[in-house]
Amino acid sequence: MKQKNLLNISIPFGIRCRCTIQKWVDWIFFPLLAPVIIFILKYVQKNRIKDLKKIRMLFKRIAGESKIPTLICANHLTKVDSIYIHHAFASLPFYWRHFRLFSWNIPAKENFWTKPLDRLVTYLGKCIPIVRTGTPEHHKEVLDTLRYLLARGELCTVFPEGGRSPDGRVNVQNVRYGVGTILNGLPDYRVLCVYMRAENQKEMSDLPPKGDTLYFDFKVITPQSIQTGRRAERDISRTIIEKIKEMEDLYFEKYKS
After folding, report:
1. At 22, phi and psi to the nearest 5?
2. Phi-psi region of 253 (alpha: psi -120 to 50; beta: other; left: phi over 0)
3. Helix, strand or coil for residue 226?
4. E strands, the chain, where?
5. Contact present, 197 and 77 (Cβ < 8 Å)
6. Residue 220: closest CA among 98, 104, 97, 89
7. Res 20 pLDDT > 70
8. Strand, helix or coil at 195?
9. What is the pLDDT of residue 65?
10. Rounded Cα distance, 129 and 150, in Å
11. pLDDT of residue 1
């Protein structure tokens, strides 16, 4: 019954075709583009992920075990957080073999759609740009597309705060209800809450500090609500952001106190 309900989640034929074509094009160019990105991350930026092997082992066990709709929700400090999340969760050969686990992202079109190279990299990076100041119809189309992709076993990444944290800390009052809109009504789902931070990160920036090691943690939750409609979306969104805030508090308690 649950699988039948998931398959009933649909979007216009044109958008389905666009997503399918983009996924295949991205997969074809993945072996050419991804190594360049990782080279920059590791040898130009000289960043590394703390406990990388352990994180990848847990991710493979959790994400690979089933096709339950899985939404990745993370704190947001830099413009390239999604790239570091990709790098933390799996190796390039693993993504090549299991491309559905290379998550879709929804970058702000205002930031990544101005230069031709940025547009190309964004397209090849499994991204669906969103115009933050766009119409309600545009936002609904993007959120419906994510629901459709989740229902078909694809992973998606969103940032519940809607933008980067100006003071470098998670603001539970700033949560956007779009994440609840995506999940509310799905018959079954789970959320991977991610907290990531470079050890010398003080506030939001374009990139993590050069040479820094990034702390990375994630927890699996299934936020629910007894409410319906917008109240349910609010409850789900607040549960997620409060979990990420809890993870942040744990980080500062362990490493900064």
Report:
1. -60, -40
2. alpha
3. coil
4. 48-49, 70-74, 104-105, 155-158, 190-198, 213-221
5. yes
6. 89
7. yes
8. strand
9. 74
10. 17
11. 44
Summarised one tens digit per residue, pLDDT across range 151-193 is: 999 999 999 987 787 788 998 887 788 899 999 888 889 999 9
Closest CA to 192 of 67, 59, 99: 59
Contact 68, 189 (CB under 8 A): yes
Q: Are 196 and 88 in contact (CB under 8 A)?
A: yes
**Nearest partner of 234 among 178, 187, 168, 190, judged by Cα:** 178
According to DSSP, the β-strands at 190-198 and 104-105 are unpaired
| 28 contacts: CB under 8 Å, gap ≥ 6 | none
Q: To 10 degrees, what angle do helices 136-151 and 13-39 make?
A: 80
Candidates 42, 46, 43, 55; CA nearest to 88 is 55
- Determine phi and psi for 206, rounding to 5 degrees: -75, -40
* Contact criterion met (CB below 8 Å) for 29 and 122: no
Q: Give the mean model confidence (pLDDT) for residues 227-241.
A: 93
Q: How far apart are CA 138 and CA 144, in angstroms?
A: 10
The tokens of 91 are what? 């190796």
Average pLDDT over residues 66-91: 94
Of 5, 7, 2, 16, residue with least CA distance to 152: 7
Does the predicted model carry a pTM greater than 0.90?
A: yes
Show the tokens assigned to 229: 């409609």
**Under 8 Å CB-to-CB from 174, ≥6 apart: which residues?**
161, 162, 165
